[in-house]
Amino acid sequence: MEKNTDLIFAALFKLEEARQVIRDGLPSGLNQQEEMQLKEKISELKGIIQALETGTTGKKPGRIAGSIEVRTREEENINIQPIQAAGRLTLAARQAIIAYGDGYSTCDACRKPFRLDKISKPPIADFHTQLAQFVNMDQARVVPGARRGFQAVAQTVVEKGDSVIVSAFAHYTEFLAVEGAGGVVKEVPLNKDNIITADATAEKIEQVKLETGKLPTLVMIDHYDYQLANEHDVKGIAKVAHSYDIPFLYNGAYTVGVMPVDGKAVGADFVVGSGHKSMASPAPSGVLATTSEWADKVFRTTQMVGDVTKRKFGIKEVEMVGCTLMGSNLIAMMASFPEVKERTLHWDDEIKKINFFVDRLLTIDGSKVLSEYPRKHALTKVDTTGSFDRIAAIHKRRGFFLSDALSAKGIVGEFAGATRTWKLSTYGLSWEKVRYLADTFTEIAEHYELPITKQ
Predict the structure, then answer these.
(1) Fold entry, domain 345-447
(2) Digit-coded pLDDT (tens) for 387-432
(3) Which residues does this entry mark as bearing N6-(pyridoxal phosphate)lysine (predicted)?
(4) Average of per-residue pLDDT across 122-126
(5) Which residues are annotated as a binding site?
(6) How far apart are CA 355 and CA 334, in angstroms?
(7) Is the dihedral of CA 420, 357, 436, 282 positive or negative?
(8) pLDDT digits (tens, 9 = 90+) for 20-46
(9) Where are the domains of the chain?
(10) CA–CA gap between residue 337 and residue 131 (Å, rounded)
(11) Taking the C-alpha atoms of 331, 332, 333 and 338 in order, what is their torsion angle to the nearest 10 degrees?
(12) CATH number of the structural domain 109-325
């Protein structure tokens, strides 16, 4: 850990220790012993700040609760891990976690009708309205991850034995959502370019109809898949689904929060997004948005009455299990939202960055890109079997030589030991970091005397 990182975390933890003294005191103020404890913590904090100012080495913060390592991955490295790139918290989100870390912190001002999306202080109700507007749908709810959005929709429209159309690139959580509802997945095959097309979807629907005697009850397709991050024809697929009167779920796990998404323009009945993948939010977090046509169904309220107590909880939404994303996860998601909205307006720049990097990687002889190219998304799968894997074949560290070389330059997140096919993302990196990243791969190639085509 770099000394500045050490000291900054030590200062943060010392502030929390000072905060604990205040928490332990009475509302009327601290007693003499507590005042002394607070002064001691402040004195220790001043020592840490002085070390930061003078550039001297200070005491390391140690492990949290004695066993949990301090995570400094984002402070000390360039992290190209695809599932983490767009989930890095904003400054505001990190501040929100500090202030709202307590379990039911969002519920301090909960009043009738006692439902999360109705809370006005903090402005959770307004945030739900903004979320729906953000993806151009009529209603939205926060959920504990995109998977819970899939689950809510599947529980709404799928009955035992029903078929659900998914992509041959579908995420496992889509499978589990369908299985949990008693349905069966039917995969649309990829074309030669690894794309899901509207025509292929129509053929699959006809095939299911012929085999089962009835139409699928849901079509669920990723805009950009998680394996290659290729763009699929979601607008055309939605049109096909509606021609059969089948609802369409737009899987925006890798789009909502990083690029503009217009659910109604696509023709989506449901839009699902991932907070921790693409909205600069802590895990688990996500969003489910829908049209007014489907809102009363997917957000249905409970009708059940207790047989002894006659209790009923009519305002609570069944698929949301009453209330969903509470506490610091939700507040951090809200805190990141202004910045998330703004960054979607600069998607073109993110595409320029990934293509800059890929272009540089392809100058290393034998390197290939497996995703569609030029790139349309920051998440990308590459093949370095003909380049870095040639070194791995004779290196004593095998494939880990590349991880070692990257780590020495402060780059992490590639699949450790992988030198054949692997994924990365440049999302959210500055141009300075993207150039540094590209230069590092070139330098490693030059060090091992791999041929490079000069640009």
Answers:
(1) Aspartate Aminotransferase, domain 1 (3.90.1150)
(2) 999 999 999 999 999 999 999 999 999 999 999 999 999 999 999 9
(3) 277
(4) 96
(5) 146-147, 251, 274-276
(6) 31
(7) negative
(8) 999 999 999 999 999 999 999 999 999
(9) 3-76, 109-325, 345-447
(10) 9
(11) 100
(12) 3.40.640.10
